[in-house]
Amino acid sequence: MAEIPATDTMPAREQAAFKAAYAAFRSATDPQDERTLRKLAVVVVSALDAGWSRRSIAEGLGINREKVARLALLQDVPRIKVDPFATGTEFPAKAVAAYRRYEDEVNLRRILTERTFAGAVRAANAAGWSNPRLGAIVGLTGERMRQIAEMHLSSDGVSIPCFTPYAKSPKPKPSKRRERPSLSAEEKAEMLRLAEAAKKATKRVGRRLGPAPSAEEVKELQDALAAREASEELSDLIIAARNRGVPWTDLDDACGYARGSAQVRAVRHGYGQGWSSLPVYTPTQLDGSVQQKLAAVQGGA
Predict the structure, then answer these.
(1) Distance CA 161, CA 15 (A)
(2) Residue 147, burial from CB neighbour count under 10 angstroms (0-12, 13-18, 19+)
(3) pLDDT (0 to 100) of residue 4
(4) CA angle (246, 262, 201) in 5-degree steps
(5) pTM score, whole prediction
(6) CB neighbour class for 211 (10 Å; exposed up to 12, middle 13-18, buried from 19)
């Protein structure tokens, strides 16, 4: 026999069989079940039609008058022959026998449905289905399912459904996490070097250079230009790294900056939409006089 594959969701056909077994069980064990009441009402209504009083019927059948009154309301039931009432006569024995036969049929139906459903619960348990899962199918608690499963009833004479073995479905494998872009060792070293050089950058490039600058003034100008170029190159590197997804925190660390400083520098140098509270950076441009003086000094050297 081929092995049935396990599942964590009971197949629809098995669920339907389980629900049907429960519906029959619930109906047969319900004192107000219409099918049960209509069967018992046959004798009561027939006796009333034959002229017997409710009191006589209750005494003859051994039931209380409240039940007789309840059964008497069900007029749309088949009739059987009941000897008519006559003063001094006892309630007909044939009517009593008919009522007992109907009671036996009702009890047999209850017993068979109890056996069927309790057997179904035990069979599902044996296949690995927990009581809470079974209870969820028919709207009962797991505790109630346990109580039904432990009913000491034989499964003889009833058909018990089979169930597919239960097995937890494997958890889906987590999606592979995308590797976070990072800086190479060379990029980190270059950013740190440029950040150190950029600390000396100033916007006062060449403004103090006179008509005959000294060697010290020329050196100061050259250093200022180098610092400014380093600053602009650093900003370009930060923006390029950020464009490929490198986190701001990594850029701050590479430059030796406090948190947020690399982003501020990038925004000032044209990254993103800019901030209204942050002035836009203007690239360093030497006017003609400064360039001429620097060229003259360098040429004379």
Answers:
(1) 10
(2) middle
(3) 44
(4) 135
(5) 0.53
(6) exposed
